[in-house]
User: Which sequence fits this backbone?
């Protein structure tokens, strides 16, 4: 019985049932397969799935399942598995893996975690039902009973001494001890949902809970424990992605199909089935959902708002660009971290050069990282001075001031005074409803038309982080750079900066701009008054 599909066929035969009833040696053979796996192939969890829980696993396994079982049966203490919908990840982990560990007594205190306590309890009760009522388990391992009164509707204990304590997302796991046993098995399955991953604050809270509460439930002085996560990609910055970047975690990312939509599990979905499903998602304009749910890719590449082909390069040292410098107005835009401690989160600053005559927007410089307030304002000044080199124009520093007005604008003024430099300060306030994610997404998405038209140009020496964020939009892991960049459209609109269409219009626009710049102010007083009433942009000249 060294072929798993032959095992499955054999189980369905009457001979298997007779031997199971009559032969002790046969039952010991089954026990061995569950405990150590097939000689030369191992994968004991796969054996448990096919032999003990074959009613769940009646379809032939694919290479996707082999990768799941390989990690479940490996020696790694931390693991994370990205699995497509419908592949059976919950039954593979909560039933086959956890069930085998309990039956072989390799796990004494198990915490299954789901997105809610109700779901965690349901999955734990499904496992309990299998352990108690499964006929093959009863004949190979003996009846799995509970100690008196311990099989409650929530946490329960087997007669062999394994305690199962289901928990929901963000519930307390600290101090979990059963008799003399600390937790030695933790498995989180689909603990995130679409709504929560949209909030960076909630993603951070979940990450802290996983690292602080959950991961410290085990006995650090022992090596006899495992912590695992299994789920589907919901966001470029979801918990699974964050833990995947931890070198301690062994990981695997699985897709139901190839980039060309060729099925990786034809017994479940044929290639035509996959392509038909793709068409359905396209009709509804939701191809991103298919990519996340079935391919574990945060954003669909096929209909992405931003594509690699949209990114045009230019070179600062080229003669063509040097000839344009007198025509370019540079603006430095800053997006400070929105936290009490700025140095605890990333801030972003971009320099964008506007050439109205040639209809070009140059992303000239990009800086991001954790900065103290003084570092942030001085970096903005440095980037403004850098843009002035070689005869360039840079009059405006535009920091976002959402809830940080006094903490950014005042230090910026003081730094300019101390360094003896002068810039106009354009305060960028929240667009839309108090800077909600939806409003920011709309602002960033508006840039895609400019990229598709070919008006944006990137400096290849610094724009790679920006391009990574744009390619994953709207579920990018980080959004600080593209959020800062997107302010350029509002600045141009409010400054009445329109791309030229012909030489006649160019002369008229240049003449108007020269008169406007005579008093060192980009907009007239009426423009400023209207903008301030609208609540979008505050204006101050230093």
Assistant:
């Amino acid at each position: 019985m060294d072929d798993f599909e032959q095992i499955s066929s054999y189980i369905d035969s009457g001979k298997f049932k007779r031997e199971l009833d009559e032969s002790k040696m046969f039952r010991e053979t089954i026990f061995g397969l569950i405990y150590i796996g097939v000689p030369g192939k191992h994968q004991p969890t796969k054996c448990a799935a096919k032999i003990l829980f074959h009613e769940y696993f009646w379809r032939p396994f694919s290479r996707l399942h082999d990768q799941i079982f390989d990690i479940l049966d490996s020696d790694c203490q931390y693991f994370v598995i990205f699995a497509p919908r419908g592949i059976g990840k919950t039954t593979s982990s909560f039933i086959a893996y956890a069930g085998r560990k309990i039956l072989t007594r390799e796990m004494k205190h198990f915490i299954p975690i789901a997105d809610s306590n109700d779901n965690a309890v349901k999955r734990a009760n499904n496992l309990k039902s299998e352990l108690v009522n499964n006929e093959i388990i009863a004949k190979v391992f003996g009846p799995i009973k509970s100690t008196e009164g311990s099989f409650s509707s929530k946490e329960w204990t087997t007669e062999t001494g394994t305690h199962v304590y289901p928990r929901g997302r963000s519930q307390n796991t600290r101090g979990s001890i059963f008799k003399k046993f600390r937790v030695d098995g933790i498995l989180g399955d689909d603990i995130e949902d679409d709504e929560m991953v949209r909030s960076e604050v909630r993603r951070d809270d979940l990450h802290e809970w996983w690292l602080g509460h959950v991961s410290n439930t085990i006995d650090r002085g022992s090596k006899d424990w495992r912590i695992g996560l299994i789920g589907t990609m919901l966001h470029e910055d979801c918990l699974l992605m964050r833990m995947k970047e931890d070198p301690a975690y062994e990981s695997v990312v699985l897709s139901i199909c190839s980039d060309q939509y060729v099925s990786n599990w034809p017994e479940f979905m044929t290639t035509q089935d996959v392509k038909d499903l793709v068409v359905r998602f396209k009709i509804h304009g939701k191809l991103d959902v298919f990519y996340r749910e079935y391919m574990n890719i945060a954003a669909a590449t096929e209909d992405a708002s931003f594509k690699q082909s949209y990114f045009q390069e230019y070179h600062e040292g080229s003669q063509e660009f040097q000839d344009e410098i007198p025509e370019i107005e540079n603006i430095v835009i800053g997006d400070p971290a929105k936290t009490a401690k700025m140095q605890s989160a990333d801030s972003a600053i971009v320099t964008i050069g506007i050439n109205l005559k040639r209809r070009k927007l140059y992303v000239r410089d990009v800086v991001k990282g954790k900065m103290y307030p003084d570092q942030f304002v001085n970096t903005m000044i440095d980037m403004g001075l850098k843009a002035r080199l070689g005869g360039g124009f840079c009059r405006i520093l535009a920091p976002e001031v959402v809830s940080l007005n006094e903490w950014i604008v005042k230090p910026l003024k003081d730094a300019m005074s101390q360094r003896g430099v002068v810039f106009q300060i354009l305060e960028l306030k929240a667009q839309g409803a108090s800077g909600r994610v939806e409003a920011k997404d709309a602002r960033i998405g508006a840039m895609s038309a400019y990229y598709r038209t070919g008006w944006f140009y990137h400096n290849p020496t610094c724009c790679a982080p920006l391009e990574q964020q744009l390619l994953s939009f709207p579920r990018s892991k980080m959004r600080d750079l593209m959020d800062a960049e997107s302010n350029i459209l509002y600045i141009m609109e409010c400054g009445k900066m329109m791309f030229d269409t012909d030489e006649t219009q160019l002369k008229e626009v240049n003449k108007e701009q020269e008169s406007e710049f005579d008093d060192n102010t980009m907009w007239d007083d009426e423009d400023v008054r209207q903008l301030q009433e609208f609540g979008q942009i505050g204006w101050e000249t230093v």
